[in-house]
Specification:
Layout (H helix, E strand, L loop, with lengths): L1 H27 L25 H19 L5 H27 L7 H18 L15 E3 L3 E5 L2 H22 L5 H22 L17 H22 L8 H18 L6 H4 L1 H19 L11 H7 L4 H29 L1
Antiparallel strand pairs: 1-2
Helix pairs in contact: 1-2, 1-7, 2-3, 2-7, 2-8, 3-4, 3-8, 4-5, 5-8, 5-10, 6-7, 6-8, 6-12, 7-8
């Protein structure tokens, strides 16, 4: 528990006090956000706001996580290394997209196909390597079983696991990316989900088969406590960043941050064996992603009519006249309720068993 608190507190400190320094660095080089002309007109005032703040989130997490282990003397787990590698890889894909938008001074970064390709390659590598490196109990970072709130009896096989993990990571990273359209929206929702993973990791460790040996309902999960430490670092880093990202934002996380955070959420959920629980825990991201899918489907089926004034969903409410802060706060409430439902499902399964 001490390591969790240290990692969270250090990540909060590094992000809170490092972000304004990073803002000045970006501003001096003119690395400002480009705003699309076809979006809400209220966003035009945000043009030129420093972006790529996700780099600071990732840096704060890695530094805090390593220092926490240095202080505690505990070994860094393979599971955490794999998740961090996934985060860095997706962050690099997002950085390329952000950098090209800045240098071109338009909304065209890398192509959608290139972005998806980069995400799939990073996620597939994570899924494949996660099936390697068994510990003394023959547990690998990622299980061959499909998991809901815990591992089920459904065995997927190596190829199916890699495909499934690639889909999960790509969908989640794009979901967070779509939610990153209003100041603080994606950051605040991510904090809540990471805190949920801290609680799940601690609970799984306390009820793991290595600790609760006589309990037939114990969890067969590798490195749950260290994944809780990593989740705490992400929660702390996002919280510190939110101080500067809240409306009016002094910095945006950019694709470098949103793709990385989505990868972290999916990677931790996969490693904790709660894959399908990510749907309620990240309920806000699911809703926003569905709004885009429904908009496209409805547009094609009706020959050009729109279901929403604009997608993703948060922009629909902007065009209805809702204030940005109002939308963010109400969407945070939805995110909080979604996390509560996810944790309730996780605990209910334990009680019912």
């Amino acid at each position: 528990m001490k390591e969790i608190l240290i990692a969270g507190a250090l990540a909060l400190f590094f992000s809170l006090f490092g972000t304004p320094i990073f803002i000045k660095f970006l501003a001096r080089r003119g690395y400002g956000q480009f705003i699309r002309d076809d979006g809400p007109s209220s966003h035009h005032t945000k043009r030129g706001t420093p972006t790529m703040g996700g780099i600071m989130i990732i840096f704060s997490v890695i530094l805090a996580y390593l220092i926490a282990h240095l202080i505690s003397g505990n070994t860094i787990s393979v599971s955490a290394i794999l998740v961090l590698s996934l985060v860095v890889a997706l962050g690099f894909v997002g950085f390329l997209d952000d950098y090209m938008k800045i240098t071109r001074q338009n909304s065209r970064g890398i192509s959608a196909k290139q972005k998806i390709f980069g995400q799939v390659v990073a996620a597939s590598t994570f899924g494949y390597l996660g099936l390697k490196y068994p510990d003394k109990d023959s547990l690998t970072p990622i299980s061959l079983q499909l998991s809901t709130v815990r591992d089920t009896s459904i065995t997927l096989g190596v190829v199916a696991v890699v495909i499934w993990v690639a889909f999960m990571v790509t969908a989640t990273s794009n979901g967070v990316n779509l939610a990153d359209g209003l100041d603080g929206l994606a950051t605040g929702a991510s904090v809540m989900t990471f805190i949920a993973f801290v609680l799940i990791g601690v609970w799984e460790f306390g009820q793991s088969c290595a600790v609760a040996i006589s309990n037939p309902n114990c969890y067969q999960v590798r490195d749950p406590l260290d994944l809780a430490v990593l989740a705490a670092a992400f929660a702390g880093s996002c919280t510190g960043f939110l101080w500067w990202n809240a409306s009016p934002a002094k910095i945006f996380m950019g694709d470098a941050g949103s793709l990385a955070l989505g990868g972290a959420l999916a990677g931790i959920a996969t490693s904790l064996r709660v894959q399908l629980l990510l749907i309620p825990l990240g309920g806000l991201f699911v809703i926003i992603t569905l709004s885009v899918a429904l908009q496209v489907i409805y547009f094609k089926m009706t020959g050009g009519k729109r279901l929403f004034k604009m997608a993703p969903l948060q922009h629909h409410f902007e065009l209805m006249g809702w204030g940005e802060v109002t939308i963010v706060l109400r969407f945070w409430i939805i995110a909080g309720l979604s996390v509560a439902v996810g944790l309730a499902l996780f605990y209910t399964q334990w009680v019912a068993s």
